[in-house]
Design a protein that fits this description.
Elements lengths: L1 H19 L7 H20 L13 H25 L1 H9 L2 H11 L6 H18 L12 H24 L4 H27 L5 H27 L4 H24 L5 H18 L5
Helix pairs in contact: 1-9, 1-10, 2-3, 2-8, 2-9, 3-4, 3-7, 3-8, 4-7, 4-10, 5-7, 6-11, 10-11
């Protein structure tokens, strides 16, 4: 279980770093760029993937290119969502992306829609509505906060679907992640070059260092989650449920206690519904 706790901690720390970045005057775009250098190097060093599967005819390069575009874009949206709507609502929206992944499994991959999963899906959709609600209905509307949360929700589901398509194509996860990270870094580095040339945004050591730290934590979230599944090979649903529910609970505690984020009664009900929905879906009988 310690791998789950480590992965959960790293996941919440990603949100914390993104929350602190603007307060410390850090350029999030540069941080995201160097994050992918760190994840690429760590994936090559720790996972040691063979790229042979990607040299074969019919290798799923379209899916890899989609991932390479979606991952950094989603990271930037995630940072904006944390900044404008808080860690609590953003982490819950991220974890509820499993609802869209489940719908995709029903529609695209032929998975059976059991009663327990359908109930979890219904509760989760109610939770999404509650999370989108602003904590203070009388306050001035945020900077498209609900749109940012919806984009996080949909974006992580797109990533899940792409990873599922890669798995169905027989591509091991380690080389797929390495290539996606490396391509994302190349694309973001090109964008930083454009920002320097056209906007005068120079790279800074503070931003690079913060980005490498972000990449370390981001990769820790991934690798500890993989290790948790390897340590509990007969309990994938338990790992999935514990991880996702834990991130919701710990993210809520950190957001409220450490950063003083406000939640309405509707938000808090939605968080409880999200926890219940994740448990129902993850622990539903296979079929």
């Amino acid at each position: 279980m310690h791998f789950i706790l480590l992965s959960m901690t790293c996941s919440v720390l990603v949100s914390v770093l993104l929350k602190l970045a603007p307060r410390r005057g850090l350029d999030v775009a540069q941080m995201v760029t160097w994050n992918y250098l760190a994840t690429s190097l760590l994936a090559a060093w720790i996972l040691r993937p063979s790229l042979e599967a990607l040299r074969q005819p019919g290798a799923p390069w379209p899916e890899l290119l989609v991932l390479a575009c979606v991952l950094p874009t989603l990271f930037l949206v995630l940072a904006a969502a944390v900044r404008h709507t808080g860690i609590v609502r953003t982490d819950v929206a991220q974890r509820l992306s499993l609802l869209l992944s489940l719908l995709a499994a029903f529609v695209l991959f032929g998975e059976q829609a059991g009663a327990q999963k359908l109930l979890g899906l219904a509760l989760g959709l109610c939770a999404v509505v509650g999370i989108l609600a602003r904590p203070d209905p009388h306050a001035a509307p945020g900077r498209n906060g609900w749109l940012l949360l919806l984009t996080v929700w949909v974006g992580f589901a797109v990533v899940d679907v792409m990873l599922k398509r890669l798995a169905m194509a027989g591509t091991p996860s380690a080389p797929a992640l390495l290539v996606a990270f490396a391509l994302a870094f190349a694309g973001m580095l090109a964008w930083q070059g454009w920002r320097w040339w056209r906007q005068g945004v120079r790279p800074g050591l503070r931003h690079i260092g913060a980005g490498l730290l972000l990449g370390l934590v981001n990769f820790g979230n991934i690798v500890f989650y993989i290790r948790a599944h390897q340590a509990l090979p007969d309990s994938p649903a338990v790992v999935f449920a514990t991880m996702n529910i834990g991130v919701v609970v710990v993210g809520t505690a950190v957001g409220v206690l450490a950063f003083g984020e406000k939640t309405s009664r509707l938000n808090r009900i939605a968080i409880l519904l999200a926890v219940l929905a994740i448990a129902l879906i993850a622990l539903a009988p296979k079929g």
